[in-house]
Amino acid sequence: MIIWGMEKIYLVSGTIGCIFIVISMIFSGSMVSGDRMRANFATETTEHRDERNKSTLNSLYIALPNIIVAALFYYLRK
Question: What does pTM read for this prediction?
């Protein structure tokens, strides 16, 4: 806010939200091909799958409020 002022504040929140969405997609394993996904599913244990799903959801829980705040700031600015 100090550097850009309130006109560009939605960029900070939106960038953080987008970064955490990408992290969530990477942790979920959705960025790989079908055969790699099938191999990962067949070789991972239930504990590893639960840990991966927890990391995915936590990243998504961080991303969603940031995206919502960015959208609000963007529309309130206009």
Answer: 0.81
Alpha helices in the chain (DSSP H): 9-28, 34-43, 46-77
Distances (CA, A) of 2 to 6, 7, 31, 59, 65: 8, 11, 37, 27, 22
CA dihedral 59, 64, 67, 71 (to 10 degrees): 180
CB 20 within 8 A of CB 60: yes
State percent of the chain over pLDDT 70: 94
Average pLDDT, the chain: 89
Distance CA 49, CA 33 (A): 18
